[in-house]
Batch of 4 targets.
Target 1
Amino acid sequence: MTSRRSMLAALTCLVLGACGLPGPDSGARFPEGSTMARVADRGVFTVGIKFDHPLFGYKDPSTGRITGFDAEIARMVAKDLTGSERDIRFIETMPRNREDFLRRGVVDIVVATYSISEERRKLVDFTDPYYYSRQDVLVRSDERGIRDLADLAGREVCTAAGSTSAQRLRGEVSRARLVIVDTYSECVSALVDGRIDAISTDESILLGLMSQYPDTVRLVGRPFGREPYGIGVRRGDTHFRDHLNGLIRQYVSDGRWDEAFRDTIGVMSVSAKTAKPSLSPSPPPTSSPSR
């Protein structure tokens, strides 16, 4: 009788996931030792993001809340890994320290208008693109001498250190005098004060900067190049990268990508008078491109 009771108890453990075995809500749904499992066990997801990019990653000075499209993508991932989008800690990153933060484990991911490039792939692993942008130029509203890329020759043009925008400017406008800074907020204050002639980086970033000074600056509206944004993870962490790729495809297919876009970047319809282009949703394909 005792033996039969022991067998019944063992079967009950197996069926119900009791007696120390992982049940459906035990948090053991990720492979042991994976980044996903470590984040789930820790209960906090650390994310590198920009704090000075309205529409993508911006720290509201009055509330301290991080807002923007990148922030919403990160919160969706946090919910998948920890069960709640609130179990997240945002850490400010800049173009010059993103790779170092990933290498040292300061953050689990970087989602910060992080353009995918072959040079960066040597240092970190990227997910498939979750957003596409193009590069443009921001000038003061009363500027009449800069109408296209060629007009930047001999002008002081601000962009961020370590950015693909700086590399493209060196190739496209070799005679532009580049002013390299750590953050684009430094660029916009210099532009408004008349210390530089223009800012050039991703159109989506420039539109965020422009939203802070709508009557003072404007876009030239001649976009060039193409910038695919990816989520950065530590180099060699292919399991985590592949898991994130699955999440991105899911967000695109189930409408959460569109909702995040609508609630942050939106579709910026503008008039010809201000010479600003429309920004339309640029989601990645739902199927993963080949590597």
Note: The first helix runs from residue 2 to 16.
Target 2
Amino acid sequence: MGNAGKYAVPVLGAVLVLSLTACGGGDDKKSAGSAKPSGSASAAAKSADRLDVRAVLKSASKKTSEATALKIVQTTKNNEGDKRVEESWRRKPAPFTTVKSISNAPGKPGKESYSIVTGGFVYTKTDQVPASGKSWFKIETKAGTDPQRTEGLASDRLAVLLASATGRVGEETVNGRLADRYQATVTMADLAHYDRPDLSKEVRDGYLADAKEAGQASVVLDMWIGKDDLPLKSQQRGKGKHGDEDVTEVYSDYGVAPKEQAPPASDVLTWDEYMDALMKG
């Protein structure tokens, strides 16, 4: 078997998330959580329009669903270590995403991965099979093929906030931009019974499945939304099987498409070719 090099196979499920748009609804049913604002916020005066939490969240959801491109930096921290993932995504002329990540675990050095997702394939860079003369391999995928989906967790998190008793914490600055911070404590047992159109069954069930996998009964969910109603940052904190976990995403470069391109076919191994080359060393 060949020696491990700089690049490792990424766990794409954590970053290629199915994202759907929340579509609004009433306030008369039980919400999935309660607002418990915490953390520091500026003493700036609250404007009346930013206090209309549902209006801001709905507008942010609409704008997120209409984004043509954006950059996402996701960081995950728990007892297993930490991971940083950078995504650059575009919707047109065809869905295209670059995924760069580096992870660190206790007692283990950081490992990098770099992938491009487009045209029904994940292209992953590798230096583990130099004898092949090729530096990429590809795997078929359904991820990143639907132009109606927006990458990242913002869409799902906005939908969950719309389904929750979300409150406005105050104003804070994110990457030099003034933002309104909204927060809710989301209880999974309550969310499981939420059935209004704010939150689709598909998004709700996927969110609950992720929480179950993480061993989390409840989380504190925050969203920082700019004055133009574009999400600038989201954060989810909860305690589960990996201890205290924090998954944060920062959003920027709306409308700026990634410059990278898929590798040429002459430089790409199929998955079977890749595994065969590894076995041969």
Note: Residues 1-5, 7-31, 34-47 have pLDDT under 50 and may be disordered.
Target 3
Amino acid sequence: MTASVALETSGPHPLPIRRPIEPGTRMWDETGLITFSLTAGSAFLLQTMEPTISAVVDEHSTFRTDPMGRAVRSLGSVMMWIYGGEEALAEADRLRAMHASLNTTDAAGVRHKALSSGPWAWVLHTGTFAFTEGSKYFARRPLTAADKEAYYQEVVQLMRNFSVAPKEIPENYAAFETFFDDMVENHLQNTDTAHDYLRVIRSVAPPEQLPRALRPIWRRAVAPIGQLQYFFTVGTTPEPARRKLGLTWTTADERKLRALGRLIGRTVPLLPERLRYFPIAYEARRLERDRARLRKIIDLRPM
């Protein structure tokens, strides 16, 4: 959370204890914004380029057959990490239990385990990148170095909540940047899973329950959304990763992304809170305000 959180003192490197993300943190204020979805694609793309995650996702994920369902479930889970209170820790434990059996062997005979410490941590590391990258394009003002460091210390708390191995957690944001750049340049690979994901988001398949007669209408309706999501995903993916995947990104594309980002960054803050935030985030924030008002009334009661 922040540098002032309680620490576990056992072991040579004290770590924050597991505790829910609290109101007033940057995560609480910004993760639930609808702009979160604009860089979620690049985070997942970077995950599918990690060899173990790619192999496990290739065999076990439903992103090809049920992309909408997978996206909604993933979004709901992430919102629980931040806004679920004590249930956030239960959600983290549920995900670890679910992934414990998600193992596979690739074509080269290499065994991959979803809970291997590096890949498990990489999922959260990509979220850190996506958040800071999103602020560069879609926020009213980019994060300062101090903002990034404060946010990263909240990430350390989140990683502790997910039982990430201490060896996988860089000490500060500067160390994270060095680690992240090395991962992208020297460890991520050009995988079929990554290309499948790009294909899926570009042309989102209709829900399975949608009648066959309505599917052409669906495809025409969502085509612009898919193209925009693909554009945002490629544009917010690091250049070395784009290069590995053979993706083109021109200076004109960059100008267009920055223009769209400025428009979004100025428009979203003007929306009512109910529209600015995803439902779980909005309700959690509203409930917290109600609790604060109740606390104030209780504190001012006659004694």
Note: The mean pLDDT is 91.
Target 4
Amino acid sequence: MKTAISQSLLGTEDAAPVTLVNPEGASSFLLIGDHAGKAVPAALGALGLSDAELSRHIGWDIGIAELGLLLAERLDAVFLRQTYSRLVIDCNRSAEQPDAIAAVSDGTMVPGNQALSDADVAARFAEIHEPYQAAIAAELARRDALGITTTLVALHSFTPSMRGIDRPWQIGILHDGGDTGFAHALLDVLREEADLTVGDNEPYRMDQIDYTIPRHAYPARPYAEIEIRQDLLGSTEGCAAWADRLARLLPVAAARTRGA
């Protein structure tokens, strides 16, 4: 399945690649969702997958679109999220990463990602990946020009079990280079919640694979990448409970960072 190289990938019937929620939000937090959407451009024919497959964790970060919306409301924060499935293109990967367009994901072959031409790949980067990254850069530049000290918070979710191994963490905080003060403060605040098992760079480790946070936060912007287990975000009630908790704890971690 190939994109017609003489035409645009996204047609008039397709959604914009970026969704901006609460653009006038006054919070110092900028919320982003690299994998919050599961749409597929019409030209790609659902990538040869069923809606059930696209709705699994391989297609998107389950619950993050709703969580981000609710958290943006509670914090009065801007939430900027990707519209399209990570199987179309993974916006948290660079062009150099082989899994930016995954031919196989968690054992599932993606027919629409097989034997792509250079033009096919370029169209997905040009029309989906780059506009999303440019929107984040533009929002940060706008805030910097206004003198707003912004903390970048990337919202992700993870499957409860991977390759037969259950994951005990309800939430994990990912961090690596740059200014990790806020991420460590958030880890401390979360560990004070008696009902949580908190992962420090678990179930994934932020490293050279990650793209969005390193691009926009390094070397000196405070940030955290948050991972929440998907079985806890499977309902509106679950998303609301996590939005309430994060709306309570994110400002506490930010205050501790400023007081350090």
Note: Confidence is low (pLDDT under 50) at residues 1-6.
